[in-house]
Design brief:
elongated; six-stranded parallel sheet; Rossmann fold; 6 strands; alpha/beta; Arc Repressor Mutant, subunit A; 11 helices
Length: about 210
Amino acid sequence: MSKRNGGGAIKIAVVATSAVRRAKLESIVRHHAEFHLAGSFGAMASLASSARTELDVIVIDSDSIHDLLREPTSGAAIVLLTEISDARSIARLLRSGVRAILSRESSPDDLLAAIYAAWDGLVLLSTPIAESLAAVYGDQSLEVEGELSEEITSRETEVLRMLAEGLVNKDIATRLGISEHTVKFHISSILDKMGASTRTEAVTLGIRRGLIPI
């Protein structure tokens, strides 16, 4: 197989708290001709303190979404081996830059495919994870979601996000420098456009449609 990046190996770092799993990942990388093991770490914090500007891919074995979202990973593509499967967490990981998410039980061949996909700028998900996302987000077509998103104005989006923060009308009015009456008008418009009957339902729909960052 020819080298994909002009003759150089794909530079990969692995991160896993388990020494056994870390050794397994190291072995997979070392035994593949197109890969170069550029680093091996027991924690995300250790990776963060090391120079990573030259890394192409980071393979991470972790169930801690907070560590993944907190620690910067430069421009390297991330392949995650995890037992995290709830749709909300998966959506947050994808938005944070994770490019491939697999179960820890995935085969070495699946891991190799994920590394190549992530390095090529593609997104690869295991079947259970893809099904988890589809179960939550698959009830709305992309066309319908796009139309709904376009209907919500930028000011209404601001109000919706403040509702997600738990702010009451008075606090929203103070933060935006508008009257409470205007806030009530915006909220009424948001509920109508999103087809929601309560503020909580509007926030839930806003999260699902990507209007509220999570």
